[in-house]
Every structure is written in structure tokens, then in C-alpha cells.
Task: structure prediction
Amino acid sequence: MAKCFGSFTIYALVTLGLFAVSVWHAFHTRKQFFPATIFLTTNKINVVVLSNVAFMMTISFAKLVRRIFLGDISAQEITEIERKGKIAVTETCLALTTFREEINIRMVVLFTLLLFVKIFHWLTQMRVENVAVQRMSYGTHIRLSFLTLLLTILDLAFVSSLTLMMIKQKGPSVLLLFAFEFMILSVVIVITAAKYLLFVHSRAGSSAEGGEAPVKCCHKHVWMFYLDFCADLLRLFLLLTFFMIICSYYGLPIHLIREIWVILKMAL
Result:
């Protein structure tokens, strides 16, 4: 963790140094505020530098949120995030090929936000699963609860805003992909919250009785099965809806066939 922190510090300092040089060069060569601003936002090199600054600030904010709500991340969690991240980036890039004519800065920003939100969803899921196997302090429970609530609100806000933007455009666009991605994330986080409540209730019951009764343990596994089944059905419904909309406007989305088949096998 210390090595990663040192590497990020070097990256942040280099990024801020390049940003300072770009701003100095713009105002030194253009002299006035408005021409300098236009130069900063239109020159390709300056756009890359500004984008890098925005990315660095996003990472910094993500680190702050992680520190507040989750604390330190274990090596196992990092490995799992890297594995899921590679799959998510590959699948999203394949999905974006359908909308290759609509690729712009806004799409890159949405892609970055989606990836960061997914990372916090994965971390929340892993922390909730740890509730079932180990005891946590009341402070940890409070922070995890607030993070789950925050992610739920964020997912619903993204879905609502993207839907309104598509209504104003009067037609599907690349926003459709991100709207459905955030819909799926909202389903996942709601199911995760339900599992969290189930784990906490089971842990509280076992503590009160001095051990987890076999009957209650059986009931917990049954509820877990129902929650996973509902999650798979909702994800399948959303993917099939997205599949039909894409087929109607863009053609056959081959990249979705594998994902639909995997979820169908899990549900059945």
C-alpha cells in the first residue's frame, strides 16, 4: 500500500507540474484571459493534460471515499478488483463498438465514472460477504451502511439523469448503454443491501442465543438463494430489454449473447 501511495504521489506531482506549465504557456503566449482559455480547451496537448488532471482528481476523490468508508484494502480485495476490472473494461469496450460513431469526451467521462462506481460496488459486496464470517465494529457497520445507501442514491441519480437526457434527444444513443449499466448496478446494490441486513440479523440472533441454530441457518441460506435468484432474473430482464432495443436501432449486439447465456444458466 505504501508503494502504491508513493507511486500515486509521484504521478500527482508530475500531473500538476504539467498542468502548471500548460497554464503558464497559455497565458504567456496569449496574454489575455479569454484567448488563453480558448487555447487551453482547444489545443490537443492541453486537452490531454487537462484530462489527465481530471483523472488524477477522480482517483484522489476515490481514495478519499475509500479511506472514509472502507479503510485499508486487503491484497485479496485488490486481486479481485483487478480481475473484475479487466473483465468489465473488456466487456464495456466491446459494447461501445456498437456506438463507435458517438464516441466523444462525454462518453469517456461516463466510462470512467462507471468504472469507479463499479469498483466501489465490488468492494461493498466483498465487505458485506465478510459480515457473514467475521465480526465488525459498530463504526464499520455504520460506514458500510452509509456507503451502501450512497451507492444506491448515486445509481438511481445516474439512471434518472441519463434517461432524461435520452428523452430530450428523442432517440437512443450511447447514453442507453450507461443507463442500463447503472440500472444493473442499482439492482446489485439493492440485493447487496438485503444480504447485509440478513447477515446482520443472523449474526445478532446467533450472538443472543450463543450460537447459530441449524433452523435459522437453513432459513438464511434459503433467503440467500431467493435473493440471488431475484438478482439474476432482474439482470436477465434488463439485458434482454437492452438486447431488443439495440437490435431494433443498431443491429445484433453479439457481445451480449455470451452474458445473457451465462446469466440464463445461473438463473435456471
